[in-house]
Design brief:
Helix content is 32%, strand content 25%. By secondary structure, it is α/β, with parallel strands linked by helices. The termini are far apart.
Length: 165
């Protein structure tokens, strides 16, 4: 299967591209690895990877295509880029928070953001938060913001309570 999206994120890993792709497809519904390519002997002087080792893993999470590249230790992930998961229910938030956060640094958990064990940043947010944060009433927005800033994992009921009060 080839990638069909015009724009698709490419995640640069040292050597964990296949491990990460398997981790992610185990968390998301409608997820699959679609293609794996391997390093050959050509270009060894540049890539220094053994022939037959994984070069690129293409995968899909809920319809979004991703590429994971084993490019070496040159680049690291940062919070400057994150993937947002918009959740309908608290059960969805709990699922993604627990699964993606497993093995990630606890100190990176704040306001619905977390880092997974590979250093990739995720935002696990309720869909209703967008409406709350763009409400015409600045007092409601302020209350929701104050409550959200004290949270690690977002709690829909607490956010809704702040919004309604």
């Amino acid at each position: 299967m080839s990638i069909s999206h015009r724009v698709s994120p490419c995640l640069w890993f040292d050597t964990q591209a296949e491990e990460a792709a398997n981790f992610y497809i185990g968390i998301f519904k409608n997820a699959a690895i679609t293609r794996i390519s391997r390093y050959g002997e050509a270009g060894f002087e540049f890539h220094q990877r053994p022939a037959g080792s994984v070069m690129v893993v293409e995968f899909v999470l809920d319809g979004q295509t991703f590429t994971a590249l084993n490019g070496g230790p040159v680049f690291k992930f940062s919070e400057a880029i994150s993937f947002q998961i918009n959740c309908d229910t608290q059960a969805e938030i709990d699922h993604y928070w627990q699964q993606l956060g497993d093995g990630g640094p606890a100190e990176a958990q704040q306001c619905g953001w977390l880092k997974d064990r590979f250093g990739v940043s995720w935002q696990v947010v309720p869909k209703v938060l967008g409406d709350m944060m763009t409400d015409a009433d600045p007092v409601k927005v302020q209350k929701v913001t104050e409550v959200m800033l004290r949270m690690k994992k977002l709690d829909i009921a607490a956010l809704q309570h702040a919004y309604d009060s």
